[in-house]
Amino acid sequence: MSNWRHKPDEKGLRRLVAPTKSVAKWLKTRKDFVIGVGVLKGGTGKSTTALYLALYFALVLNLDVVIVDTDDNSQSISRWVLQHEALGHTIPFKVIVHPRTGADAISLKKRLKSLEGKHDVVIVDLGGGDKETFIDLCARARLLLMPSAPSGWETDRIQATLQTAASAAVLNTEGIAVYNFFTKCDFGTTLAEEEREAMAVDLSDEDEDFVPPPFLHPYFDVSKAPHHVRSWTVMPKRSDLDEWGLLVRHAMLGIIEEEEAA
What we know:
- This protein is an alpha/beta fold and 262 residues long.
- The chain has a single domain, classed as Rossmann fold (3-Layer(aba) Sandwich), CATH 3.40.50.
- The protein is 42% helix and 12% strand.
- It contains 11 helices and 6 strands.
- The protein has helices spanning 10-16, 20-30, 46-60, 76-86, 108-114, 131-140, 152-155, 158-168, 191-199, 226-230, 242-261; strands spanning 33-37, 65-69, 94-97, 121-125, 143-148, 177-182.
- Helix 3 (46-60) crosses helix 11 (242-261) and helix 6 packs across helix 8.
């Protein structure tokens, strides 16, 4: 369920999202579309976002998808896959564990280079706190999604992440689109609206590096749905992927339109 407080009419919604078939065709033609999911902080819903986007691309759009799991601390995606394989479930995407330390460690730049041309979509689940990996991600990704719950406890690192992304974006030859959005939203409250307003306060007079948070349309905030919690043992259904599909189709609209107009 998307945010009913900001629901556009049917015509308005069509203007906000790229058509499903257009997204699938564009990605299949383009190949190797890199989506980063990351904030320089743990516990903001990155792995949930990476997981549900991978499921949406694979199950709904029938694309070849790989997730690069960079989180050495928890490796949530990798453990999710092992859990579901043990339950006999079919995993519709591939996962690559990307250790950042140890004998097998390589830079994310080299990892992404090795994957070029091999998949339709590459989703990078960024572990919190690794600035070098984040810079490599921003230098290669076409889309960076920065999820957080509507609480100052989770959004306090957003500004530092945005500043780092802005600095690293100069290394990206294709250009990177960066968006914030909220997960774990209870749409019976106005917490998301309150936190969005607080984060958008212009602090440029105090901080010359201040970057205004680039929020997606509030309709595409993600709900605090029970299936997110149950997904550890229960494979999400296609209907559970609808709000994630709307979110990424909204985020990709400008990218597709810009490239097709060029």
